[in-house]
Amino acid sequence: MSENCSDNNCCESLEWLRERIHNKKHFTARFIGQISDASGMDAELVVKVLAGALSVILAFSVHAHFFANSLLVAVPALLIFVFPAEKPSDDSLFIFFSLFGLLTVLDRSLEKIPCYYILKLALFVLLYIPPYVLHKKISELIQEQLKKQKSNENVSEMTRSQRSAPKTNQSTRTAVSALPPPPQENPKPVEQAPPPVSHPVPVEQPPPAEQVPVQQVSAPEPSSAPALVPADPTPEPKLPSSRSRSDLAGGSQRFKAGPNPMQSNSFYNLKSESDGFNSRAVSPGNNLNDMLFRPTEKLVFNAPFDYDNLTYHMKITNNSHHRIAYAVKGNAVPRVMANPAFGILELGEERIVAVSVQKFAWNDIYFHKDRIAFDYVLLPDDNKDKDFSMGMFQHSDTKRRKNIRIEYNP
């Protein structure tokens, strides 16, 4: 299993590099293409020549400090101001500039290490190459520090409130003790009006009348009790009606051999922030309606969010003339997961997929970009496999993606 995961990570890294070299939607590929057209060399050969020249400069040049830091400042500036469509997320930029500032301060003391500036440049490149292990660890450390700060702030607020509580009690006591002397003279005329007080007496008589029928009902308890018992439990299941047997906590009935694979395999984690359909080398005979989704754009989960699982059942349909292999990925695993997370759809087959959201604190999690994505490929006619495998995605030229947004209604 570990070998498959490592192979998948290598494939993802190589695919990411090829995209930046050959896919013209990236400014790096457009720049390399211009050099390739002018020199007549292959695009990959141009990249190797540029990488070799940069390595020599960073390893042996006296101005390696200038070249390395200029490159690390110029690329984010281009992404932010010139090519905003390719800009990474704000969290990624925060981590990048924080780490860049820390290392730049220590450059003069660390440049004694051989090839230090090459290692520094490689470190920042690893932040944005799948499987994003370094980026995830840094973001987890930052989140832990933020949680500790919040907990310390809450503790300090509690101590402040406890210290201020006795002062308020003393002020109320003094106020109450100061008020009674003047009103002692006013109740005297009030005592002279006993007749009006006698009027509310008949109003107090209905309560005993209400207690009498209650005692009478206690006698026919066997006949009235069954009528009351079904009335009480009926409103209770209405609240957790969103729960389902396909919920993912503690393992699901569909995956009896173990937990949901979305929790144990990084293959099901989204690596990009792109939306909508992403097609690569789609042949003219295919179309984007080969796989249908209901709902088509988003899933809305209603509050409260303190249940173990809130589940939304959506439908997927194979509308093509080929078998389809699919896998569900997400950017909020394990808080948002799907079941079944992968499978093969026969021609015209419909399948129900349970999308579950585990309980979370509304103010402690950034959930505004939550989404799941259906990656799917059209299987060739000679493929008769009944079991799903990740190799179906690696050896196919018809890989596509459908994003489904996750929204929360408080």
TrEMBL record:
Compositional bias annotation for Low complexity: 211-224
The organism's place on the tree of life at top rank: Eukaryota
Protein name: Major sperm protein
Alphabetic keyword roster: Cell projection, Cytoplasm, Cytoskeleton, Membrane, Transmembrane, Transmembrane helix
Pro residues bias: start-end ranges: 179-210
InterPro entries per UniProt: Ig-like_fold (IPR013783), MSP_dom (IPR000535), Nematode_MSP (IPR051155), PapD-like_sf (IPR008962)
Domain MSP positions: 290-409
Organism of provenance: Caenorhabditis brenneri
GO cellular component terms, semicolon-separated: cytoskeleton; pseudopodium
